[in-house]
Structure formats: C-alpha cells, structure tokens
Here is the input.
Amino acid sequence: MTVMPTFAGSLDDYYLAAFGEQSAGASGKTTSLQTETAALPAQCGTPLKHGLQRDWSLLLPTTQKVLAKQLALPTLSGTEFTFISANGHFKIHYTNSGSDAPPLLDNDANGTPDWVETVAATMEYNFAAYTALGYRAAPTINGAPYDVYLRNLAAQGIYGMTTSSQPAPSPGFANAYASYIEIDKDFLNSIYYPYLPLQSLQVTTAHEYQHAIQYGYNFYFDIWYAEATATWFEDELYDDVNQLYNYLPGWLYHSTLSLDTAVDYNATTIGAGYGRWIFNRFLAEQHGAPFVRTAWETLATLDSASGQDIPMAPLLEQLLSASPFNTTLGADFLALAKRFYTRDWTSHGADISKIHLAVPVATYTSYPVSTSSVPAPAVTLPHYSFAYYKFTPVATDYDLSIAVNKSNGISATVFRKSNGIINEIPANPDGATFTVTGFGSLNPASDEIVLLLVNTTATDGLGANFNANLFSLVVAGSCGPANGTTINTIPTSGLCTAGTPSEVSGTGPWQWSCLGINGGTTDSCSASIQSYALSITIDGTGEGAITSDPAAITCTSGLCQASFNYGTTVNLLQVPNAVSTFTAWSGACTGSGSCTITVDGPKSATATFTRAPNAKIGSIGYGTLGAAYAAAATGNTILALDTELAENLTLNLNKTITLKGGYNASFSSISGLPTVLKGSLKITTDRLNVNGLVIKP
Here is the structure.
C-alpha cells in the first residue's frame, strides 16, 4: 500500500518535504518532515527511500530532477576509499575527510581504519547468521561485493537506510532488486545514546541487511512488515543490545491503530512498523521461527498488479489458514493481544521484563460504568487493533457484572488479576456478560479487572460498548469433585463448585466446608485417605516375631498383612526366639537391623530367621553334642546352646576337652540358663572339664 502523509498536498509535495526540499504544495504551506522529526527518536531511512523508488513514475519531472540524488549512489564528503571484507561479500565505502569521515584510528597500522574493519567484520557476521537461518543473500549485480557506505546520518535522525538500485531478477525471484546500504559513520552522536557505537552498529547492520535481503525477495514488500521483520532480527542476531524494546510503548499507547499501520515520520512514536517486531516474535513462538522466512519466500512468488506494495496481512492470513498451522491471522492477533497482558512469552525469558506492560485506554474507579462515564465505555476499532479497559476494585460486598455489546468480529476477554496471578474469566452462557465474583475483596492497590476488546478481522470501523455494574450475588456453597474421593494427600483443588472453601483440616480423612456467599447455604465436604497393605513374610529355619509401630502387625509365622494410611512411617522390629537368630530382611527392607518403611503404595518384606546350632566349636556349628565331640580335637572347647538336648553322650576317644553349656543363640554370651542333656553322659578314656550342663535322665 502507498504510504501517504498526514498533511494536505500532492505526492510531489510529500516527498519534497520529506527529503528536506522546501516546497509550498497544494496546501499553500511550506512543509518539511525533517523539521518534524528532529525531536523524534532515530529510526530507519529505508521506508522513505522505498516509497520514492516505488512512486517515482508518479512524480512530476521537476520533482524527479530535484530528488534524483536521493536514489543515486552516495557521494562522500572527501576522497572515497574502499575496503573488501574478509570473505569478500562486502565493499565498505568511506572517506578520511569531511563530515562523512569515520574514526580514523589504525592501531594495526595496515592502512585501513579499525572502525572500517569492524564494520566489515560485522557485516560478514550478519551474512553468515542470515545464511544459517535459510535466507538468501542480498543480490548484487554480477555477483559483486555488496556496497555499504559510511555517512554522517545523525543530522537526518536515522541509523541507516537501504536503497534499491536496479532490478536483479533470477529464477523464482522475478521482482528481486539489488540495493546498497548507508549507515552512520560512527554512531557517536547523542541521538544514538545510551547505546555504545558497536551496539548501534550491530543492530543497524542486522536491520539494514535484512532490508537488502527483502529487496532480493520482492521489491514490492509491504513496508510495515519489512520494518517489523528487520527490527525483530536486531534481537535475533544481537540479543544483548535490546534497543528494539524502546519501540513497544509506541504501539501499546496507540493500540487502537491497526497492525499494519503505515510507517511514516512518526512511526517510532506510535509503534508503526518498528514496534510491530514483537508480532514476529509471537509468530516464531507459536509456529517456529522459519514461519517468518516462509512469509518472505511466499511474497517472492507474487506480482504487483498496480505497481504498489503487496499487502502483507492477506498473505499472512493465507499462510496461517493452511496446513500445518490451521489457524487465522485474527486468531493469532487475538492471542498476541492477550499475551501483552498475560506476559506468558515462551522465548527470551531473561528479557520479558523489558516488554512494556499493556496500556489501558481507560481506567474506571467508580461504578456503575455507563454512557455517562468519562471516558465513555465505547470504542470503534480499525482492522487488527485492540483496546484494554481497567476496572479498579472498590471496598464493597458486591460482585461486578460486565456486559459487552459488540459487532461481529470483535472479541471480548475479561481478566482477573489477584495477588499477581492472572486468570481469564469465562463469559456467562449468554456470551455477552461476565461475572466477577469477590470484586470487592480485591486489593485496589495491586489487583484489577481488565476488559480486552480486539478487532480480529480485516474490516475497519467495528464497534463495541460496555457497562459495568456492582451487584449482590447469593451463592449456595456446593462441594466440588474432591468431595467423597479417596486420595493420597491433602486436597488443594476441586474443593468447591460454588461458594468459598474453608481451610481443609485433618491429616486424613479430611473435612472442609463450602461457604455460601451473601447468605447462601454452606455445604460440608470430606475426602478419605488412601490406605495400602504392608505384607510381612516369616522365612528361614528359625523362629521369631515381627512387630510394627504403629501397632498393627504381630507376625510369628507365614504371611501377615495390615493396612496403613498413605504416607505413614512404619517401624518394624524383629525378635528371634531363644534358639534362633535374625538373618536378614529382603523386599522393602534390607540389612539385618530394624526397618523403617514409608507407605506410599503396597509394600512387602520378608524376615529370615535361622535356627542356631546346638553346639559350636569355634565358628562351626553342630546339630548334637555327639557330633561336636566327634569333631573336637584335644584341647578344644565345645559351646552348647541353652536348650534341652535329647541324646546319650559317650566320651571314649581319649581326648581332653572342655564343655560349656548355657549359651544364647548367637553364642556370644551365657544366657544364665544351663544346657539340659536329656539322656546319659558316659566318660571312659577321656578327660572332661564341664560347666553349665545339667543331665536329666
């Protein structure tokens, strides 16, 4: 679309004034956009050059004569020198005298100013970065290095500009143009403050070389999207500079302007073009960064029937509605408008705080809000634009009702912000009203209700009006889906379907109430705690008992079970009988000591007890005293278990031995009870020292 000025006069007057050529046009007034932009932030000069080249044939011959120098190759203020970048992709043009001269410091004494070498290296970095992202290189004539001119641009209030020079068509790119770039000679002027010269160089060259790439796709690009893309890439290539965040307030303070608002002299003030860079970040987050490149590749296939720029919004709609995206530009624009408030961006997380907050068109602090309110609660929105309205809470027992009357194509969304948490409030079944319960309990200093109205269509002039009223809503408390459930942990959600939940009490089962609002009845609710079985198995040749704390298990043989609530800590204690030892745990318990289990599901453990031998010599056990005697050597000591042994013992092997009875099952100490030999003891040829043995016939 042709970018037309906002003042009266012909197209000739517009361009003459825009380029500082004083002209009294059709309005009879002398106008100069250069004067108007003097106090505005520095920006890109490409839109004006692009428009002039596009509209050249529409200008009067006298105007063309005056402005021809704007499309001619730059003439520097002194003798022109050139420097070819390391990889041969760029030719840097500079001078060593006059106003266009860059810093001439040459620390390496190679005859080329260090700053010129820095410019060349930065351009090569940009070339490599764009190539890696799949973009085609900016075309040049006969493959020559791309021309970059260092000039004094601060006086014009711009960082840089890219000018198309001549057609450079190739297969698949019928409308491609070659171009050249001009950037400020050193970025030392105060208009570039507070950014360092190198930072300004980085974002400017990333921006302008993206324009050069765009000319290589299709000369007839829509300038708002060209600037949105070039600005977006400043941060994609140089994420630490962050200069582009300065353009966002302009858009958010003028959100009722269309997404594709024309880029004019005041673009940085109203966020046109430059501020729309964040739309590309949104598209990249939603659909992947290659989506933006696909848009430019699609543009390359189109022709301009009228010789004017090809509108980008219909092209984006076409791409988004096709597979694999299967959405619409309107749906994505609505999601973007919401994200300005919810701030749930998914990339560049460290920089989200730099994104300006959504700006309300109006803030209301007294109620009702009606046609007599100031400002009036009504808006007319052009295509793809939005408006926020803020409602500040007041101390009251009432709720808030918002009713919206809107044209088809306007989307209405209500947000509730409480304690820093933002939730979207669903519309009532009628689709036109929203109920904000507990409005009066919100904190006026930090909480708010916000209405977002979005024109999601390509149609201008869609309207909406609304009103907001306080009212008392009687709500009966009603238990939520957590009621009657069996769960593992204290319930924190699903407590009430209506009313206000009380504090949940107990450690399971749990009880709570759903309190009615404004005199509504109260409902009592509860949830049971899940319990799980703990299974204990007694195994081994010995005997013993397993007990639990909490007391629920006393197991002496076989399999025993008890149920415990989820999260219960159960201590298991093993007690072998007098003639057994505890060997080990297996399953949910390990080792040979006591065991502690946290019940978070079904658990099972096996306790193994081992029958102690009746007698031992050293570490070797024997089933009978006779077997131990037969194995003993003269001088050995036989230890006997403190139990009753039914056998007849004859000592006739001419040995001298010691027999000590009354040992515990581990043979670690004497228990205090003797060993009872139920039978006879006959000594023939042996000598026996005996202690702790009782013979019972």
The two ends are 123 Å apart (CA to CA). Residues 478-525 form one domain.
